[in-house]
Amino acid sequence: MLGTTVIIPTALVPQMGGGNEEKAQVIQTLLFVAGLNTLLQSIFGTRLPAVVGGSYTFVAPTISIILSGRWSDEDPISRFKKIMRATQGALIVASTLQIVLGFSGLWRNVTRLLSPLSAVPLVSLVGFGLYEFGFPGVAKCVEVGLPELVLLVIFSQYLAHLIRPGKNIFDRFAVIFTVAIVWIYAHLLTVGGAYNGKPPKTQASCRTDRAGLINGAPWISIPYPFQWGPPSFDAGEAFAMMMATFVSLVESTGAFVAVARYASATPLPPSILSRGVGWQGVGILLSGLFGTGNGSSVSVENAGLLALTRVGSRRVVQISAGFMIFFSILGKFGAVFASIPAPIVGALYCLFFAYVGAGGLGFLQFCNLNSFRTKFILGFSVFLGLSVPQYFNEYTAVAGYGPVHTHARWFNDMVNVPFQSKAFVAGVVAYFLDNTMHKKDGQTRKDRGKHWWDKFKSFKTDTRSEEFYSLPFNLNKYFPSV
């Protein structure tokens, strides 16, 4: 979890005007809320071992709030607090979208039309679409990132099968072993003066003492709602954040499908997916109330971790959520873990995101790959899913604003943000084509693999659904899954 939990505040807090102390506090809050949301999702939501944490999807509308120009005359700390309160207001309003779509059952009706064919581009690009956070992150400090990547592959794929097979020591603990080894190695390089006099960018990426987080973090601090003050509301910013929420909803749907696959559960019944989306909306509401500066969605890296460790236990994830809450309250401990250099996290992403992408490709086994309809939908959606966001990102990098550039900043965000998400573009294109092209043809249903998922359309049609997805404390009686 330390990847997104540290990287997002590290990027956003200095732009808001905050210093090391504020950065440490936001990291603590993000980790605390991630622990709470993970517990809620695994107990009352989908009941899958899905970790819920910060999301890169919400970064763009947050930056838009930072750049709005309303805060130029403020001193840095006052500016930071006002921007944080504006972000809180936007998140609180935006959370209603997922809460309504999830708990009303509307999202259930949408996902009933999802087939293995339309799930392939969606789930694959939830993983593969995050490629820019993989090796480019490793290359920021190649002498630290590359050893982590090589060691992780050796430990998880080679040593696991060479040394005492069947004990599962190396595949289950590969991440902990390799991160500890490379972290110590990076610390020795830092202490030995290898980065003294190097450019600031290199020092920021490579050093283990770079962040000033340990000094900034208090020993004990419990995050609480409205810790930055009462939230402020702006209709335009709320609409822009609402669109980011919808994008994260589509991406999280793909991540939930991948988690169910790697946790060896049956395909998610639409009603359970809708329930999970509703609780994810509650998670975004909590993010707004506590002031994380970022919304919540299913953690893609932790979906990949299920595949790497082969541990799909709900209990393990709940205990992990307890550790997240524990380390967020003991600020100094959390800050020590946050000193892991970012290239180590980039190396982990290379495996985790790859596993999620491969999980999406796994659904091809249910489709007829000899059908030209299948080939067209698959190729066209994946190509557009990569090509359209590339255009939007390149345009933004050169011009400093997106292709849609009007005087209404909120409208620009509402259009530009969705088209920068690879999984969103690919998923929407595949879903639309799959549900509109030649549907009356009898062979089409088999080509798209729909007949494999038919028996999971309802919660009650498979006896195993009770084991995987039924609510605790006999709550199914009051909240039936239809």
Automatic annotation (TrEMBL):
InterPro entries named in the record: NCS2
Spans traversing the lipid bilayer: 50-68, 89-107, 113-133, 145-163, 175-195, 316-338, 344-364, 376-392, 419-437
Alphabetical keyword list: Membrane, Transmembrane, Transmembrane helix
MF GO annotations: transmembrane transporter activity
Pfam families: Xan_ur_permease (PF00860)
Keyword Repressor included in the entry's annotation: no
Subcellular location field: Membrane
Domain of life according to the entry: Eukaryota
Membrane topology: Multi-pass membrane protein
One GO cellular component term noted in the UniProt record for this chain: membrane
NCBIfam families documented for this protein: NCS2_1
Family designation: Belongs to the nucleobase:cation symporter-2 (NCS2) (TC 2.A.40) family.
Protein name, per record: Nucleobase-ascorbate transporter 6 isoform X4
